[in-house]
Design a protein that fits this description.
By secondary structure, the protein is an alpha+beta fold. The protein has two domains: 147 residues, Aminotransferase class 4, branched-chain amino acid transferase, N-terminal domain (D-amino Acid Aminotransferase, Chain A, domain 1, 2-Layer Sandwich), CATH 3.30.470.10; 168 residues, D-amino Acid Aminotransferase, subunit A, domain 2 (D-amino Acid Aminotransferase, Chain A, domain 2, Alpha-Beta Barrel), CATH 3.20.10. It has six helices and 18 strands. The strands form two sheets. Strands 1, 2, 3, 4, 5, 6, 7, 8 and 18 form a nine-stranded antiparallel beta sheet that branches. Strands 9, 10, 11, 12, 13, 14, 15, 16 and 17 form a nine-stranded mixed beta sheet that branches. The chain starts with 18 loop residues before the first strand and ends with a strand.
């Protein structure tokens, strides 16, 4: 095993042993290969460099308390990539191939998989790109699928369940109505960088986007889904612009296991003060509690038109913490995997 500071990994890129690569050409996929070279060569006319026909996934592998290695719901990531590939009209790996290459990646980089007890994991990043040279606006006929893995800790560097503040984004929209917001396309993320930089410069850790059509309903955070707790209800937006988060889907199931009512519906902005707990959720963090959300005419405005407080700084809500601990216990092998979510190496 690598000699790393497992308790302070952060979310930085580290040089690992290998990536797994397969290429689609002439109507078929090549046999997956273990590549020790982490650099790839592309023709300068490769479609992805010009037209951003690319999608990716994010999932994690965990070394459990029982010593077993588990991947969390890779089949769901495979299905989500297939959906994005279909949207891009280009070849995508089968569910079997996707899971196989993820397992291969973990196996080849096993000495980078953090030990149990550090709240750390191996983050897997499957990437699908159009790779044939082209000038015309056409679907790529050659596609490259790569699975890479990296040891990670906390996405923000803070301890788990440390709540942060957020600002509502009125300057920028995350996704167009009937656009690509519900697909994990690479091109969806760069447009949010400017807004995030402005928010961070203004002292906010998170950025909450509203629906682009009316700016009256909650959409999602810049990199994570939104959910709130109100009474015995778990509430999350129902929108064709929101990415279908596998973490959110899993949390909803756990919420039902705990007897909560799951409500997937439009959440009007006016409902924010009625929520008792608010969180961002996604693979990288599982849950990031939000202690405060402010509304402004624009991100860097000094004028605050509304201020919603859900907890003290750094504190997570009781129900949200319970959901988090349950999902992490399943990933670590401490609780029975009654929904058959984990795939063992």
């Amino acid at each position: 095993m690598q000699n790393l500071d497992w308790g302070n990994l952060g979310f930085e890129v580290r040089r690992t042993n290998a990536v797994i690569v397969s290429k689609f050409k002439d109507g078929k996929w090549s046999e997956p290969e273990v590549c020790k070279d982490l650099d790839i060569t592309l023709n300068v006319y490769a479609g992805v460099l010009h037209y951003s026909n690319s999608c990716f996934e994010g999932l994690k592998a965990f070394r459990g308390a029982d010593g077993k290695v588990r991947l969390f719901r890779p089949d769901e990531n495979a299905k989500r990539m297939a959906r994005a590939g279909q949207f891009l009209d280009m070849a995508y790996p089968s569910e079997e191939m996707f899971v196989k290459m993820c397992l291969m990646c973990v196996k080849e980089n096993l000495d980078f998989l953090p030990p149990y007890g550090y709240n750390a994991s191996m983050y897997l990043r499957p990437l699908l790109i159009g790779s044939n040279p082209q000038l015309n606006l056409l679907t790529s006929t050659e596609v490259t699928f790569i699975v890479m893995g990296n040891p990670v800790g906390s996405y923000s560097g803070a301890a788990a369940l440390t709540s942060v503040n957020a600002v509502i984004c009125r300057d920028y929209d995350r996704a167009a109505p009937n656009g690509t917001g519900s697909y994990k396309l690479s091109a969806n993320y760069a447009p949010s960088f400017r807004a995030y930089n402005l928010a961070h410069a203004a002292g906010y850790k998170e950025l909450l986007f509203l629906d682009s059509a009316t700016h009256t309903k909650i959409d999602e955070f810049g990199s994570s889904n939104f959910f709130g707790i109100k009474g015995d209800s778990y509430i999350t937006p129902l929108s064709n612009s929101v990415l279908p988060s596998i973490t959110n889907k899993s949390l909803q199931t756990i919420a039902e296991d705990f007897g909560l009512k799951v409500e997937k519906r439009a959440i009007p902005l006016e409902e924010l003060p009625e929520l008792e707990e608010v969180n961002a959720c996604g693979t990288a963090v599982v849950i990031t509690p939000i202690w405060n959300i402010v509304d402004k005419p624009f991100i860097q405005s000094e004028e605050i038109t509304a201020d919603y407080k859900y907890a003290e700084p750094g504190v997570c809500g009781v129900t949200s913490a319970k959901l988090y601990k349950q999902i992490r216990a399943i990933q670590d092998g401490l609780e029975a995997d009654i929904h058959n979510w984990c795939v063992e190496l």
